[in-house]
Specification:
This protein has two domains: 84 residues, no CATH class; 57 residues, no CATH class. α6 runs parallel beside α9. β1, α5 and β2 form a beta-alpha-beta unit. Strands 1-2 form a two-stranded parallel ribbon. The longest helix is centred in the first third of the chain and has 14 residues. The protein has nine helices and two strands, in the order ααααβαβαααα. The protein is 55% helix and 4% strand. By secondary structure, the protein is mainly alpha-helical.
Length: 146
C-alpha cells in the first residue's frame, strides 16, 4: 500500500486503504496470517519484500504475481517451489485456460467503473497503460464479450 501511494501521486492513502478493504471483503480466504516468523530467514534483493515470499511459502502458493520481477529472482524462490510471474503473463495464461471466466471478470470490472465509465476500447487502453499489453492484445479477440 505504501508503494502504491509513493508511485502514484494521484492516489491517496485513504483510496488505497479502501481498495484493499474492498478486495479483502470480496475474496474469500485471501489474507495470509502467521507468516511473520519466516521473514527473518529469507533473503531477497529488497529485504522489504520478504513478507511476500513468507506469505507465499506459508500459504502453499506456487506463484508470486508481481510487476517487480527483479526483486524476486528465480534462485531465491526455487528452494520453495515458487516462481515469480509478471501480471501480464499470468492474466494471459488465465485467458488461455478459461476465456469465458476472464471475459466475465473483465466485463464486470469495466461495468463497475463509474468515474469515469469506460467503453471497451477505453478499458483496454487503461489495461495497456498498466503494463498489460499482451493481455490486451489477446482480449481484443473477445471485445464483444467485455
Amino acid at each position: 500500500m505504501r508503494n502504491i501511494v509513493k508511485d502514484h501521486v494521484d492516489i491517496t492513502r485513504e483510496q488505497v486503504d479502501r481498495i484493499r478493504d474492498l478486495m479483502n471483503s470480496h475474496v474469500r480466504d485471501c489474507l495470509v496470517t502467521g507468516y511473520e516468523p519466516l521473514i527473518g530467514g529469507l533473503t531477497l534483493p529488497d529485504p522489504d519484500d520478504r513478507h511476500v515470499l513468507a506469505a507465499a511459502i506459508l500459504s502453499g502458493a506456487d506463484t508470486i504475481v508481481t510487476f517487480n520481477l527483479k526483486d524476486f529472482p528465480e534462485e531465491a524462490l526455487k528452494p520453495y517451489g515458487i516462481k515469480a510471474q509478471h501480471p501480464d503473463e499470468f492474466l494471459n495464461c488465465q485467458l488461455d485456460l478459461a476465456p469465458n471466466v476472464v471475459c466475465a471478470a473483465a466485463k464486470k470490472q469495466r461495468g463497475s467503473l463509474k468515474n469515469p465509465p469506460m467503453n471497451v476500447e477505453e478499458y483496454l487502453a487503461s489495461l495497456e497503460r498498466q503494463g498489460l499489453a499482451q493481455t490486451v492484445s489477446s482480449l481484443r479477440e473477445y471485445a464483444e464479450l467485455i
